[in-house]
Design brief:
The complex is a heterodimer of chains A (244) and B (274). With 244 residues, chain A is an alpha/beta fold. Chain A is built from ten helices and ten strands. In chain A, β6, α6 and β7 form a beta-alpha-beta unit. The longest helix of chain A is centred in the first third of the chain and has 21 residues. In chain B, α2 packs across α12 and α9 packs antiparallel against α12. Classes of the chains: A alpha/beta (244), B mainly alpha (274).
């Protein structure tokens, strides 16, 4: 009988424990779903918040499926506006800009000097991101403007976010890839940035929006205020982001 | 079984079963079966299946080819540092796949430890199926080797000793006595290694990348498709469930394996198991 009681208590404790884990929407630090390219800078703007960094497309998909995010920061307005249109987030705010560069490993195995060289290296190993990932979207835009879409045929890996591209280049696995200027700045010991012709440069804009279903609106709004305020702008600028 | 204890047992079991089975069933119930089959016929799913079949085949051949003698040697020899060596072999088992990925990069990438040697020898591993095979072999082989060591250890040394006394050479003793007696344990370990290899994700995406038709395995394809085409992701998930279930069933049903398992694990008291 006493064992039965112990079992009952154990069961109740297990249920309570799981319930405790699930209620991540309770008041407290905000949970921020943010574009992979913000990995370095966001924790500096708000050290007390919880972050999940991934491709903005994946994060938008997860929020759509009820993920417990309080804030969503996307590397393209496409996904914030998408969720806003469907009433899942509050009005998005523009908070940073960025630019694309062609990144190569420091050893530059394929001897790339300009974006045009991509077409001239027959055995080039190019890493890109999927067409739905913001960096993949921007990459295709750049190549289209330069009339170089055919170099996509030299793709050796389709990465889920920009961090995947940076990683492959940093280890010299791949020869070249398009990343954000801020990524090369963050790993300047391993990567070299080759600037793109200005006419091919896409407009990279970051938007942040409060998720409508949040129970943590106060913390979320505080983070947005920090981000748009002096401290946030200083950190973004230090990391190499442009300011709107 | 009556009374509160029985009731508690039943409730706990029901919760555990529901928890384990609902996500697996949900894969098949989320969309109509026809749509699921269409998803399996999509190019992404077909390519991923082919890539997985090829790389798994090669990886498992390597695991059996190199893992079996390794397990036999370690099981039958006593030497200094043996425990340490076994621990080292088991290490990839408990390492997070991301660590396996970064380790493979640190060792074999062009700027890695052996990068220039490989380059000198003319090996191009990056983003090839060879990279997938290496990642899968690295994370999966310890399952086989570990099980193999226990299986060979469980073979009664007096039997192999008798074979040697009767004039069989060490090779013949291995193939005719040790290997058949350890087959059950080896089979079980191999099934675990196979299943782990099919499910391999982290090390593969870090070390081999992901490209449809080249390095994108079923596990990687689920991840890439889940926000592109959810139906296809579900379909590939369903394929993986079926393959994994088939492996499990094979291990439990193949009679030679099950019977030889009971022989090898209860060899000291064979009469008790019959």
């Amino acid at each position: 009988m006493r064992r039965g009681l112990a079992f009952g208590v154990g069961l109740a404790a297990a249920v309570a424990l799981i319930a405790g884990f699930t209620s991540t929407r309770a008041e407290g630090p905000a949970t921020v779903y943010a574009a992979a390219s913000l990995t370095g800078v966001f924790p500096k703007v708000s050290p007390s918040s919880n972050f999940q960094f991934a491709g903005s497309n994946q994060l938008a998909f997860q929020i759509r499926n009820g993920a417990p995010a309080d804030l969503f920061a996307s590397a393209t307005p496409v996904y914030t506006q998408d969720l806003y249109r469907d009433g899942l987030v509050e009005k998005p705010r523009l908070f940073a800009t960025n630019s694309l560069v062609l990144a190569v490993p420091r050893s530059n195995p394929a001897k790339i000097r300009s974006v045009q060289d991509l077409a001239k290296r027959p055995k080039l190993k190019l890493v890109v991101a999927g067409a739905k990932v913001p960096i993949g979207l921007y990459t295709r835009e750049v190549l289209k403007r330069l009339g170089l879409l055919r170099v996509l045929r030299k793709t050796v890996s389709q990465e889920p976010d920009v961090k995947g591209i940076v990683g492959k280049l940093a280890f010299g696995q791949a020869d070249a890839g398009f990343v954000y200027a801020t990524d090369v700045r963050a790993s300047s010991s391993r990567l070299i940035a080759i600037p793109l012709p200005p006419r091919s440069q896409p407009t990279v804009r970051y938007e942040i929006a409060v998720v409508k279903s949040t129970n943590n609106r106060a913390s979320a709004l505080e983070l947005v205020a920090d981000l748009l305020g002096e401290d946030g702008r200083r950190e973004l600028k230090r990391a190499g982001f442009g300011l709107p | 079984m009556k009374g509160p204890f029985g009731a508690v047992l039943a409730v706990m079991t029901a919760v555990a079963l529901a928890f384990l089975l609902v996500p697996i069933l949900a894969i098949f119930l989320q969309i109509p079966l026809g749509q699921l089959l269409d998803g399996m016929r999509s190019p992404a799913a077909v390519d991923a299946l082919i890539v997985t079949a090829k790389t798994t085949l090669v990886a498992n051949a390597l695991i059996l080819l190199f893992g079996t003698p390794t397990a036999y040697l370690i099981a039958t020899r006593d030497f200094r540092g043996r425990a340490l060596l076994v621990t080292a072999i088991e290490l990839p088992l408990v390492l997070p796949p991301a660590v396996a990925g970064i380790g493979l990069l640190a060792a074999l990438s062009p700027i890695g430890l052996l990068g220039s040697t490989l380059d000198f020898l003319g090996f191009e591993i990056a983003f090839t199926q060879a990279a997938v095979v290496l990642a899968v072999t690295f994370v999966a082989s310890p399952f086989y080797i570990r099980a193999g060591i226990s299986a060979f250890e469980a073979v009664d040394p007096s039997l192999t000793g008798a074979a040697r006394t009767l004039g069989a050479g060490p090779g013949r003793t291995f193939f005719r006595i040790a290997l058949p007696l350890a087959a059950g344990g080896l089979g079980g370990g191999w099934a675990l290694a196979f299943a782990r290899g099919i499910g391999e994700f982290g090390a593969t995406i870090m070390f081999a990348g992901s490209l449809q038709g080249v390095t994108q395995t079923l596990s990687l394809a689920v991840y890439e498709q889940f926000d592109v085409d959810f139906d296809v992701a579900l379909a590939i998930g369903a394929e993986l469930v079926v393959v994994s279930a088939a492996i499990l069933l094979a291990v439990k049903l193949v009679p030679s394996w099950t019977s030889s398992t009971s022989t090898s694990t209860t060899l000291s008291a064979p009469s008790a198991s019959r």
